[in-house]
Amino acid sequence: MEDQYSLYQDKKLEEYESQCKRCGACCGVFEDDPCQNLILEEDKKYSCKVYDNRFGLQKTMSGKEFLCVPIRKVISQSWAGSWRCSYKNVK
Fold it and tell me: Is the pLDDT confidence value at 1 over 70?
């Protein structure tokens, strides 16, 4: 039974993650000091070079520390460019 629950959770996480359009808004791309782990790919989308270990203390390009948290914890807030976030625009 636990394996089925784990598979279900993995599937839901995959569905949730697939909503991301990799705009970089939640990582500060529309601010003056984005996360130092943000990478602009050739396809003009953003990725995180430490994605699997991103949660916790991180630094911006200028060295300012911030706490990276799951998007679901801040989805109700606004930030620069948050209007582009596909998680916020899911109906």
Answer: no
Enter the pTM of the model: 0.79
Distance CA 3, CA 77 (A): 34
Per-residue three-class SS string for the chain: CHHHHHHHHHHHHHHHHCCCCCCCHHHCCCCCCCECCEEECCCCCEEECCHHHCCEEEEECCCCEEEECCHHHCCCCCCCCHHHCCCCCCC
CA angle 58, 61, 87 (to 5 degrees): 60
Provide CB contacts within 8 A for 27, sequence distance 6+.
34, 35, 37, 38, 46, 48
pLDDT level of residue 90 (50, 70, 90 thresholds):
low
